[in-house]
Amino acid sequence: MARACAYNPRKRERERSLGEEERWMKLARTVPAILMRIGTSRKAIKSTMKGMKAMKAAKRGDGGVFSDQMRHASEHLDGAHGRIARLIATHAEAGHLFVHCAAHIGGLKGGGGGAPAWQAWEGHRADAVLHARDARWWLCRAGGAVEAALDVFRVVEGRSGSGSHRPREAKRLRRRARDDVSKALHALTDMRHAIVLEFFDAWMIAELAIID
Asked: Is 1 among the domain residues?
């Protein structure tokens, strides 16, 4: 004769809770992979460096080359700006997901030894956001200087009827844009470094939560 099992609502609730937590944990473990993917992406840096290369080529050419290369620089900087915007959006989504998972997993945010790792993750996440904003700001400023240089060139070209020389003000704006792009590249490097550190933090948090 089969033995009847007493219904234990508390046990069932614990089992349901554990199953729910496992699902959230599985979701949380996707975050480090996302961070590694965006932290090692070089697309924004490559576009920015192409913009810098075009500005260097503009320095060496005559008026026509200057105009063509500065237009290329503008296109590359716009592309870099768009790529950074997409990285920022993905980074923000990964962060929100991790925080949301932590609300459903007791050991993720600070249970046991997880608290220092969580604090480190929050710090590196904030650093990444700050560096990304700096990179976009410098790229916007550089893009403005490039467009201004092209405007000056067009005005002077229209007055002189010749595109064989580069106006002094256009050259000054090119130098300013070049300096701003250098600062944007530095900020992008810092952003990638912060996101890679964030990856290690998130991985450690997930591992500690499993151990706990």
From this structure: no
* Domain interval for residue 175: 23-211
What does the DSSP assignment read for 100-157?
HHHTT-TTTSSTTTHHHHHHHHHHHHHHHHHHHHHHHHHHHHHHHHHHHHHHHHHHHH
Contact present, 158 and 63 (Cβ < 8 Å): no
pTM above 0.85, yes or no: no
Structure tokens at 179: 């300096």
In the chain, the number of structural domains is 1
Whether 88 is in a domain gets the answer yes
Mean pLDDT by groups of 10 residues along the chain of 212 residues: 48 55 88 94 96 92 84 96 96 94 74 74 97 97 96 78 67 95 98 96 84 52
Tokens 């092209």 sit at which residue?
150
